[in-house]
Amino acid sequence: MITLADIHRLFRSDEVETAALRSIELQIDEGEFVAIMGPSGCGKSTLLNVIGLIDRPTSGRYLFRGQEAGELDEAARARLRRDNLGFVFQSFNLIDELTIAENIELGLVYRLWAGRERRARVEAAMDRVGIAHRARHYPHQLSGGQQQRAAIARAIVGQPALILADEPTGNLDTENGEQVMDILKSLNAEGTTIVMVTHSPAHADVAERVVNMLDGRIVVSARRAA
Ligand code: ADP
Ligand code: MG
After folding, report:
1. String of DSSP letters for 109-172
2. Residues less than 5 Å from ion ligand 2, measured at CB
């Protein structure tokens, strides 16, 4: 599904240059569940942003389903994102002024489906993560665990092939973290590819493969014993 070849990402300011990614070689197959681990600042979020077509590498090749992402203009990249990707963040990133159902519908904002179809998809996504009873509530009225499940519903409502999750359980207690992991696990069992940054060895254990990073490099990429 994804091939990264000799990817570098430099951040330059007047005084400093940071090599956030160095010589990254990574292949991700359709249907995989990959966990990315490593200390704070080692480049995990930068890698996820490159994979998610949010950020462009300074050099290197990125193939997404056979397409050279580096050769696409912003409009084409936005289309690829819309049609293929769902994002989940540590801090949920729901919009406070919108209800949960409206937040989830944002996941369909560029889709041309008619009203009835949209509502059915939003309903199905809410059912999927167990928050249908909170549809008309606002984010601040929900617990952290419920907010993250709503954020997952927003990510999956467009039925993406790939979910990118940046420390999705980082702000949750153990029980809510487990619920989020159960949802990701079942999405993966149905064929959704998942790339998840985590600091939790237990949550990384759910993945088929763990990629360990240090100082912008991949130091180990190990498949879990079956
Ligand atoms: P992680 O997610 O593993 O904590 P990041 O990918 O966020 O690490 O950051 C990797 C390195 O790149 C860090 O040194 C960070 O300060 C730097 N960095 C990330 N984003 C930017 C940016 N937009 N501008 C400048 N430096 C950045
Ligand atoms: Mg990060």
Report:
1. TT----HHHHHHHHHHHHHHHT-GGGTTS-GGGS-HHHHHHHHHHHHHTT--SEEEEESTTTTS
2. 44-45
Angle at 207 between CA 185 and CA 201, to 5 degrees: 110
| Contact predicate 166/47, CB 8 Å | no
Instruction: State which ligand 1 atom lies nearest to the alpha carbon of 40.
Output: 4
For residue 226, pLDDT over 70 is answered with no
Residue 221 backbone dihedrals phi, psi, to 5 degrees: -130, 100
* 177 CB burial (10 A radius; 0-12, 13-18, 19+): buried
Q: How many whole angstroms separate alpha carbon 8 and alpha carbon 13?
A: 16
Residue 208 corresponds to which tokens in the numbers above? 């088929």
Is the predicted pLDDT of residue 142 greater than 90, yes or no? yes
Cα dihedral 203, 205, 209, 212, rounded to 10, equals: 70
- Which residue ranges form the domains of the chain, and what is each CATH number? 2-223 (3.40.50.300)
Whole-number Å distance, alpha carbon 159 to ligand 2 midpoint, is 25
pLDDT 10s digits, 196-222: 999 999 999 999 999 999 999 999 888
Alpha-carbon span 13 to 221, nearest angstrom: 31
- pTM as predicted: 0.94
